[in-house]
């Protein structure tokens, strides 16, 4: 087992979507409930915050130093230089009660993200979308809380979870077409304390899964066997990603939402940003290559 340390205690209500930028060597992440995008410069410890009009669920990298952001009301470009948002599209204009949650860019440059009803996430009103140019195509529906989006290093498997169902699925993935087939069970957490939240994959093809309510990140082998555990001193662990100049740092976001006063007193670091140092090639990052969102020159540091 490995322990993670809190490097910034932002006390996020719902910290999510850590994203390492290898160009600026900064980490971005969001606090969904407080409608904030954070940026950390690990060299200086400086934190910059930008407010959003609606809840930001996920981030990806784009061209000219911009980000792609999934907000409650759709997909946007965001410029950390100007603080301005530019709408791309809204995948669900008729569902204002839904918001975008977990999302990432695949190695063909398509932005993928899931939606969920918030509040009332127990209702299966969400879906999984892929962004082709400025068109959002629905790939799955009947989702409650979409999470764990990531791809195997060979691009042949897409991982995806419904947190409420407590399962992570694997799909056969066609990188050229972006099609999903052969959904199968990868990990079943039913009956366990934690629920699958955000995830990432390392160069060996092992999946690192944050367990919301479980206080840990679990590394699974490609056949779904537990290989390694990273423990945190907080219950609500939300999403891991690799970063740092050599991609040996595992950054982990957490949440303080839903905790009683007594629990907050016992978990003073809840909502903080955590990190642990690992060794190459275990934590080498699989996706540093530039990619392009179709019809929009963009790139992302992929999980």
Describe this structure in words.
- The chain has 303 residues and is mostly beta strands.
- The protein has one helix at residues 261-266, and strands at residues 2-3, 5-8, 15-21, 26-31, 36-41, 46-51, 56-61, 67-71, 74-78, 85-89, 98-105, 111-117, 126-132, 135-143, 146-151, 157-162, 167-174, 179-188, 195-201, 207-212, 216-220, 226-231, 237-243, 249-254, 273-277.
- The relative contact order is 0.18.
For the largest beta-sheet, the strand count, sense and barrel status come to: 5 strands, mixed
Class of secondary structure makeup? mainly beta
> What is the number of helices?
1
Helix-strand topology string:
EEEEEEEEEEEEEEEEEEEEEEEEHE
Could you list the spans in which at least 5 consecutive residues all have pLDDT below 50? 283-302
Mean pLDDT: 92
For the largest sheet, list the strands in their spatial order.
1-22-21-20-19
- CA(first)-CA(last) distance: 22 Å
Measured on Cα atoms, how large is the radius of gyration?
Answer: 17 Å
What's the number of extended β-strand segments? 25
As a percent range, the share of helical residues equals: under 10%
Strand residues, percent: over 45%
Shape: globular
């Amino acid at each position: 087992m490995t322990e993670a340390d809190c490097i910034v205690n932002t006390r996020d209500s719902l910290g999510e979507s850590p994203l390492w930028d290898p160009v600026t060597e900064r980490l971005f992440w969001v606090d969904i409930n407080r409608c904030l995008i954070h940026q950390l410069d690990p060299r200086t410890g400086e934190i910059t915050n930008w407010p959003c009009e609606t809840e930001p669920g996920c981030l990806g990298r784009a061209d000219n130093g911009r980000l792609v952001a999934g907000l409650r009301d759709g997909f946007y470009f965001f410029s950390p230089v100007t603080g301005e948002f530019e709408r791309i599209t809204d995948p669900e204009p008729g569902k204002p009660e839904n918001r975008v949650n977990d999302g990432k860019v695949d190695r063909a440059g398509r932005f993928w993200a899931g939606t969920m009803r918030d509040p009332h996430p127990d209702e299966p009103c969400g879906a999984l979308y892929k962004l082709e140019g400025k068109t959002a195509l629905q790939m799955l529906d009947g989702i409650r809380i979409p999470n764990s989006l990531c791809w195997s290093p060979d691009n042949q498997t897409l991982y995806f979870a419904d947190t409420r169902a407590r399962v992570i699925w694997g799909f056969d993935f066609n990188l050229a077409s972006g099609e999903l087939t052969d959904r199968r069970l990868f990990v079943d957490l039913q009956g366990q304390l934690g629920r699958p939240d955000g995830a990432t994959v390392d160069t060996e093809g092992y999946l690192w899964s944050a367990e919301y309510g479980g206080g840990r990140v679990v590394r699974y082998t490609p056949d779904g066997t537990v290989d390694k555990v990273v423990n945190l001193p907080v219950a609500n662990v939300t999403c891991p990603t690799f970063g740092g100049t050599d991609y040996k740092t595992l950054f982990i976001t957490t949440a303080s939402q839903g905790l009683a006063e007594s629990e907050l007193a016992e978990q003073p670091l809840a909502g903080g940003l955590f990190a642990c140092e690992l060794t190459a090639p275990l934590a080498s990052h699989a996706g540093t290559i530039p990619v392009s969102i179709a019809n929009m020159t963009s790139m992302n540091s992929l999980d």
